[in-house]
Each structure stands twice: as structure tokens, then as C-alpha cells.
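tool_call: predict_structure(chain=1)
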Amino acid sequence: MKIRSLLACLALSATLSIGLSAEGQFLGNGPRDKFRDTSILRPPAGSKIAILVWEDLGCPACARAHPFELEATKQSHVLLVRRDFPLEAHIWTFQGAVLARYIQDKISPQLADQFRSDVFASQSLISSKDDLYQFTSAWFQKHGRKMPSQIDPSGALAKEVNADLELGKRLNIGFTPTVVVVTDKAYQVVCGTAEGANDPAQILPVVKAALATVSGTAQKTGPKTLAGGVRSPEGRQALRR
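tool_result:
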């Protein structure tokens, strides 16, 4: 009986040790995924490491991951590359992405981050395009601005959102959010696979581990952000096929 108890304790200890040692590591592989064109998973020119995010503004799991993404780039000064991936099931999120692009391009990237944060926090209040426009109009007023009558008359912003969408399809995105920490030679999926923890709290630890693997880890001063369903049990948004 004592031997069995001892063996059980040793097995538990080994399991815990493995779990702790894997946490926060940049393994360059991570859980299996169904990605196709992984050439997309590279940092932009001039950066040795980046956090790539594909998100949908109506996705609850994206709302939970959002502050972890911002905190990771704030603490590490690693570039955050945000890609819009509006799901067809969410009838207002494509236009929400266009509005966020307008704020980023015409006003400021920092204010665009705030807009996304506020939309995520208000998901329960937005279920249609009309709701979105009412929310955005009030948001503009709150920030001392007037919402323009035409946001994207030329369609240029919509093309940017569609470009992100097509990039995600090339990669074969299966869930939102998909969060990947990338270097020039490797990548690690933190969120966005059918397997794995999909824990956004691991974004910063994985980023720090990735920085430790890159020689000369100095990044451009930051933080900086670039912008380019069926719900699973974890609350992520799985794409309809």
C-alpha cells in the first residue's frame, strides 16, 4: 500500500513538473494545427519577433484575449500584428472592423485599440449593424468627435479587412482568436487550435521565452500595433465550413 502511494506521488510530481516546465516555453511547435501556408507566420521586416492575432470583434474569446495581447506587447515591446477575421455568423463584425480601421488610419492607432477594447466590452449590447452604428456614434461623441456620415466611401478600408480575411483563409484559420508568437525561423500557437490549452494568459510568457531564443533581442521601441461561428466549449469561435 505504501509503495503504491509512493508511486502515485512520484507520478503526480512528474506530471506537475512537466506542466510547469512546458509553461512559458517557446518550443517552436506547440500543439498540432491544421495550418497550410505557414510562410505567413513571420514577423514584419525589421522585427525579430511578433505576436500575430486573427480576431473577430463579436467573439467572446477574442474579448478575453484582447487585454492579454495588449499587456504582452506593452511589457515586451514586441510588435502586435492584428488581423481582422470577421465571421459570417456575426452580421455586424465586418463593418466593426472597417470602423476600427477608419479610426486607426484617420485618427490614431492608440484610439483604434481603445475602440476595439470598448467594442469587446460591449459585445452583449451589439447584435446588429444598427446597434453597432449607435454604439460607435456615442463612442465618437464620448471622445470629442463626430462620427462621419460616410466611413469608407471608396471601399479601401473594406479591401484591407478582406485582405486580412483572405490571409487567414490561406493559413486555414479554424478558430478565433488565433494568436501565434513568431520568429524568423519558428512559430508557436498560443490560441487557435482544437488541441492545447488556448490560454491567452500564456501570451506574455511565450513571448518572453521567444525573446530569449533570439540573439540580440532588442526590438523597436513600442508597444506598437499593426492592423493589416459555432462556439466551442472553451468559448472560442469555430468557423462554419
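agent: Confidence is low (pLDDT under 50) at residues 1-22, 229-238. Proceeding to next step.
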